[in-house]
UniProtKB/TrEMBL annotation:
Lineage: Bacteria, Pseudomonadati, Bacteroidota, Flavobacteriia, Flavobacteriales
Record domain M23ase beta-sheet core: where: 201-297
Chain segments annotated as transmembrane: 26-48
PANTHER family found in the cross-reference section: LIPOPROTEIN NLPD, PEPTIDASE-RELATED
Protein name: Peptidoglycan DD-metalloendopeptidase family protein
Highest taxon listed in the record's lineage: Bacteria
InterPro entries membership: Cell_wall_metabolism_enzyme, Dup_hybrid_motif, M23ase_b-sheet_dom
GO molecular function, one term: metalloendopeptidase activity
Coiled-coil ranges from the UniProt annotation: 58-92
Keywords, ordered alphabetically: Coiled coil, Membrane, Transmembrane, Transmembrane helix
Amino acid sequence: MSKVKYYYDSETLSYKKIEQKKGRRLGIALLSITGSFLAGFILLIIYLNIPQIETPKEKALKRELQNMKLQYGLLNKKMDQIQDVMANIEDRDNNIYRLYFEANPIPEEQRKAGFGGINRYKDLEGFDNSKLITETTKRLDILTKRLVVQSKSLDEIAELAREKGELLSAIPAIQPVNNEDLSRIASGYGVRTDPFTKARKFHYGMDFTAPRGTPVYATGDGRVARADSRSTGYGNHIRIDHGYGYTSLYAHLYKYNVRRGRRVKRGDVIGFVGNTGRSEAPHLHYEIFKDGKRINPINFYYGNLSPEEFGEVLDKAQRENQSLD
Ligand SMILES: [Zn+2]
């Protein structure tokens, strides 16, 4: 509170108040405000120019942050390596495995697709190192997705390989009797002379001459569909259902080694050569059906013949002669 000051007026012989001028008071106020600002500004300049004195905690945090950045850098380098390995596997998957099993290659966009829609990285935003962390996380997410796609593809390949393996072991692919010197092929598929009527007739199978009791082999994996003599002409015969539309038939048997319903593997002895049914001499009459139609068995001996041997078999089977039926 400012003191009230007086002066003595000699004319009126009394004390009077000294009135301070308003303008001067304002000037003083302005001067003090400017002064304060100036002082503050100078202090700020000094503060900014003096090297910061860090507390031990700040120092530790700073070191930790630097280490974290270093570690993120190393992580990214490791991810580079993993990405290279991954790209190599994907390439082999598309161009070898999937190609081999006739599956469509998986397009690049599908393999490397990120995650669309909502921002999955919102929680990582708003920090000094947000970009580094977000980018690293994104890379890891994409890599994870590529792994999932690849893993599914391999499952598919494994399934296709299993099916292909099953198909290959099911299809009739060997000769039904031991025929090392290829001397047992007596008659092939095509028009032949009937041994009984001597008429020209279509012979729907292949005849293998062999002594009675010679083992007869299943020519592919399958299930015995029939083992009986209730079909005219065939005598004791066996039919094996191989699946995939294939059936093989073995006729004029002397004896059976299997019963209906038995599962057999390629090469299993299923019966023995005989002379039952409409047969002129002991031999095996062999037929292959595809989707119920009889087809030429000659195309199914690739399992255990060299190209030269196959040529010889073809030659013998095509010879126009009399079948043994
Ligand atoms: Zn025949």
